Amino acid sequence: MMFKKILIANRGEIAIRIMRACKELGVKTVAVYSDADKNSQHAQFADEAIHIGAASAKESYLNADVLIQAALASQADAIHPGYGFLSENASFAGTVASAHLTFIGPSADSIRAMGDKAESKIRMKRAGVPTVPGAEGLESESDFKKAAEEIGYPVLVKAAAGGGGKGMRVVNQVEELKEAIESARREALNAFGDARLLVEKYIPNAHHIEFQVFGDQHGHLVHLFERECSTQRRYQKIIEETPSPLLTPELRKQMGEAAVAAAKAVNYFNAGTIEFIFDPQPSTLNLQPFYFLEMNTRLQVEHPVTELTTGLDLVQWQIRVAAGERFPYSQEQITQRGHAIECRVYAEDPANGFLPSTGKLLQYIEPRGPGIRVDSGFRAGDEVTHFYDPLLAKLIVFGESRETAVQKMQAALREFVVHGVTTNIDFLQDVLTHEDFAAGNVSTKWVENNFKWTPPAPSFESLVAVSLTDSSTSIGNNVVNRQSEIVNEHDPYSPWKNPNGFRN
Ligand code: ADP
Questions:
Q1: Which of 174, 206, 213, 328 has its CA 20 to 30 A from that of 143?
Q2: Which domains does the chain have, with CATH numbers?
């Protein structure tokens, strides 16, 4: 039976996105908000809003007990976790179920099985899904040495409990191995309380290609094609698109089948993503072009590009299958049309190590027009604080072809006006016009290694907007204050502390 009321255990653009789906389905919505989000758009967009605690995520959006109490007090019958925060926390999913509420997502067991890199790799191998050549369960330095020699340098040492690129070290030769193991162990123990490491072949110039999977609770599971997410900085995606310019129909079919097999191996239902590492020069590795990397057991930030090209509303379907409905489409019935691109518009400074930028949005005008979608949680006058991820908006466009989609994205970015914080809009624009991007030649390290970017001089309009509305601060001062504010932030869960955050 369809839910009557859903509590959305998240904030910002994704909370609003989920509420829209609820409203279309005739389901009432409950927002939760922290001290910092009192006046936020997501709290106002819901039918009810409940205050859940202090601004730091640990004391609000990561506080499982308070979230469950809020759901029970508001008589909600389900919780949608969105992405980030508690969305991939198996024990939260379990506690929600024990409170007789529905967790809109997979089972706690599926989350747990895919949460550990070593365990999930072993499971995937058993299910016949290609994984990066490597070894798990290693203890002594000599074990690592032996494994690395068999695999062949360069190798990558990874934390088994890892996430957000933490506890990962590229090792080019045997002399670097000891130090890499020690430092990765320390970092892993610190970040995850778990020092286990695995080692695998390092694939240079790799692309990140992921497949959306979707299943109901009656054993039916399909894939909804791929997303190319290789344009990244510091392991974080900034531009995503579908279809991938690199995939042939044959590879797409093989990877789609592998994605379905991977998800079925953990009895998966609801929306999930199988991430593959894609080797554009597979001859170096026995001709195998793609390997399972990890599964994200939740809704993905970049789900809109899949929605625009398949015509399916993924969030509505998440809710419907969580309520027990069958997903009615067979693999053959699901088709992709045209090309969609998403750009993540961040309040950050690409010229200064992508450092987040805080402040009041003095002017904020989103682009509009046919084939343009903006998922955002901000309006003019809102404050970007240092407590949460500085994603301002997701700008998504649809075109008949990749070329027309790129053109549309460029025009839409030109229309996007943000004054008061530094944004990555000019940076995104320059990536889109680069010949490597046009050729689909952007690997996950491309921004770091191949893209030298210099910002344009600030426009007259932006200087006027800042000085007219906020005469107490100069632009230069703001930057200094914001940096020290971030350094002083004591919340270990703050995405500002961990630049690798949850933005996958
Ligand atoms: P995390 O969970 O910490 O994000 P992942 O295993 O998903 O770790 O890897 C993060 C990123 O690191 C990938 O998106 C990819 O860019 C890179 N990466 C991971 N494994 C390899 C590998 N074997 N070779 C080259 N790059 C890799």
A1: 206
A2: 5-104 (3.40.50.20), 133-201 (3.30.1490.20), 203-337 (3.30.470.20), 339-504 (3.30.470.20)
